[in-house]
Write a structure and sequence with these properties.
By secondary structure, the chain is α/β, with parallel strands linked by helices. Helix content is 24%, strand content 41%.
Length: 124
């Protein structure tokens, strides 16, 4: 079996352009790539987050009834979970939860379509 070297996390969206604007706030920049219709990517070193139209996933996978908006969860490692939470909420996200344990803190926000975005801050 080949060793996994990086990850592309996918978030599905019904309203791709509304979601693109929200994620531009989270990543503090426009997408790094739009390799095909219905897909935006933000590249984070070797890793990436893909925002893909739900209809495009259904078309490519030949699963016309697959998935639903709000069914995705992604965790982003950040330096400051609180500032990430504030930015996400100011852009139209909704608060979900906060959790702290020895060595880390998480805050979870729902994007405008209900997908869960968790910001994980590791303690120094």
């Amino acid at each position: 079996m080949a060793m996994v070297r990086a990850i592309f996390a996918g978030v599905v969206a019904e309203d791709l352009e509304m979601q693109r604007a929200w994620y531009e706030t989270i990543f503090e920049r426009v997408p790094d790539a739009a390799p095909m219709d219905g897909l935006y990517e933000w590249h984070l070193d070797e890793n990436a987050v893909q925002l893909v139209a739900l209809s495009k996933v259904r078309e490519i996978q030949k699963l016309p009834d697959w998935g639903a908006r709000g069914a995705t969860s992604v965790t982003l490692i950040v330096e400051d979970a609180e500032s990430s939470r504030k930015a996400a909420l100011s852009a139209g996200g909704s608060p979900v939860s906060e959790f702290a344990n020895k060595g880390f803190r998480t805050v979870t926000v729902a994007d405008p379509e209900g997908n869960l975005v968790t910001f994980l801050q590791r303690d120094a």
